[in-house]
Amino acid sequence: MAKYVREIGHDAYGYDTSPTAMNIAEKYSIKKAINFSEFDVYILCVSTHKPGDLFSPQIDGLLSVVEKLSTEAKNGALLSIESTIPKGTSKKAFEMLHHRLHVVHAPHRWYAAEEKQHGINQPRVIGGVCDCCIKAGMQFYGGATYRSSSDNNNDKMSLGIPMHPVTEIEIAEITKVIENAHRYLQIAFAEELYLYCQANNINFPELRDALNTKWNVNILEPREGIGGHCLPKDTKMFLQSSKSVRSKILLAATEVDKDYRGYRQTRAQTDTGHLI
Ligand SMILES: NC(=O)c1ccc[n+]([C@@H]2O[C@H](COP(=O)([O-])OP(=O)(O)OC[C@H]3O[C@@H](n4cnc5c(N)ncnc54)[C@H](O)[C@@H]3O)[C@@H](O)[C@H]2O)c1
Predict the structure, then answer these.
(1) What spatial distance separates the first Cα and last Cα of the chain, rounded to whole Å?
(2) What are the chain's domains?
(3) Residue 17 beta carbon below 6 angstroms from any ligand 1 atom
């Protein structure tokens, strides 16, 4: 994101608690932010999982950065939270800042393997806490030009990203977690079909190929279980977002993933570990 911001002609500075991450950023000419009062836009993209546990959501790190901004950031600047966050986090940040900054949530969408089609410049959802927040956010990401309310003399180029604004910031928050929960579900279904095939002596790859000849069927590959630092954590965020109605189908999907991993582990211990 910072690389893209630079490419279209803005200055981009970075801040990260990890010196390794900062070194990598500096290789792309992203300078280290020292004085936090200098910027028109702050894009927050810190990790939102527990340190040492990729699968569990935690926003303490993110809130510590908001805390820092609450005392150091420039009046009227824009704060865009791009990290994946639990419902209610944006408004919490907004309250911590006492509306000294505009707050939007524009969840990041990125698929490294297909950077051209699904990199920075693809349609994204955005929500703002107040009308003035979404207006500032839309101008920065998708408008013709961007003029920070803290810098009245200077029109700057917007990012030119096609944005889909929503009326409530919570909708932007849960859109991101639900799109990943949906992916989780699709993979869990593939895992379950795989286990079904193993139990019933059916060739899974052949069945999958046959199913996927239909235009509206897309059975995924189960691979090594649902991992990474997005799908399991974000599915948990979704499950934790409602006390009264909890998604039964997702709870079942997490059980399927457990069974599938258990199966793989047992197979790896009892034979060559080769799975079809
Ligand atoms: N990677 C993706 O493709 C992707 C896509 C969509 C959404 N997201 C979301 O974006 C967020 C970040 O993802 P990522 O892949 O970059 O994660 P990451 O863990 O690789 O990187 C996050 C960075 O945040 C830094 N950090 C953590 N706590 C900090 C703090 N308190 N102050 C400053 N820096 C801190 C870490 O050192 C790390 O360099 C997550 O919420 C993730 O779910 C990621």
Answers:
(1) 38
(2) 2-167 (3.40.50.720), 174-270 (1.10.1040.10)
(3) yes
